[in-house]
TrEMBL record:
Belongs to the class I-like SAM-binding methyltransferase superfamily. Cation-dependent O-methyltransferase family. Gene3D superfamilies: Vaccinia Virus protein VP39. Pfam families: Methyltransf_24. It comes from the Eukaryota. This is O-methyltransferase. PANTHER family: PUTATIVE (AFU_ORTHOLOGUE AFUA_6G01830)-RELATED. GO terms for biological process: methylation.
Length: 225
């Protein structure tokens, strides 16, 4: 009998159960979406207002493991939705602070008030001490909410509609520490939509090293060197 795939996430059972439930809800919703949903700008925000579109569970586990490996204290999540990936980031930051000391936060971003409210409910269900207290949720357009009070950044998770991706990264670039990691979801399936962003990151003068990880639809791992 083979052993189950290991899960790096250190958390109590109720958080694992919550994460499993939220990922399942997200997958069920996505399966019901029309296949063209990403390429129909008309009514897009309305369609997405009650949708998770959560980062896949295996990718969330990878980002958690990465955040632990680099001892990330300050993480910016570009696109929070109902707060699923945020839970992984908050758990990682909490463990890093416990082990390494110092201060840190996950800066989360969501423009839709109703989505921000659902995210807060999920974090409350996970618990204040392990999750909520490590999150600074900035509600509103992230091109405004990320203009000020940004610490030196260890890790960015970029999981956002394409038109906002490059402007958001450019806004944060001055705050990236050397060796900071930028993770971009769907770098294969959304390569056309993310063209400007990927061209920027992969340009020889950009100061990043880039790697496309072979997760479903691609996951780009870029290191600021
Ligand atoms: C793909 S979802 C994020 C999923 C989330 N990372 C997770 O794993 O649960 C992207 C989110 O970004 C939000 N968003 C899009 N444009 C935004 C903007 N300009 N400012 C803030 N949030 C934005 C959308 O409302 C949507 O909820």
């Amino acid at each position: 009998m083979s052993t189950p795939a290991p899960n790096p996430v250190v958390a109590p059972d109720h958080i694992h159960a919550l994460l499993n439930r939220l990922h399942q809800e997200s997958l069920t919703q996505e399966a019901a979406l029309p296949s063209t949903y990403l390429s129909s700008p008309e009514g897009f925000d309305d369609l997405m207002r009650d949708k998770f579109i959560a980062l896949d569970q295996d990718k969330c586990q990878f980002v958690y493991q990465l955040a632990r490996a680099i001892g990330a204290r300050n993480i910016v999540e570009i696109g929070t939705s109902f707060g699923v990936s945020t839970i992984y980031l908050a758990l990682a930051v909490g463990s890093n602070l416990d082990h390494l000391g110092g201060e840190g936060k996950v800066i989360a971003t969501e423009k839709e008030h109703t989505k921000a409210e659902r995210a807060r409910q999920h974090w409350k269900e996970a618990g204040d001490s392990l999750v909520t207290r490590h999150i600074d949720l900035r509600e509103g357009d992230l091109l405004e909410t990320l203009k000020n009070n940004i610490p030196q950044i260890d890790l960015i998770l970029l999981d956002i509609w394409a038109p906002v991706a490059l402007p958001a990264l450019k806004l944060l670039e001055p705050r990236l520490r050397s060796g900071a990691v930028v993770i971009i979801d769907n770098s294969i399936s959304s390569a056309t939509r993310y063209k400007e962003l990927l061209d920027h990151l992969r340009s020889p003068t950009s100061g990043y090293t880039n790697l496309t990880l072979p997760y479903s639809n691609g996951l780009e791992m870029c290191v600021k060197v």
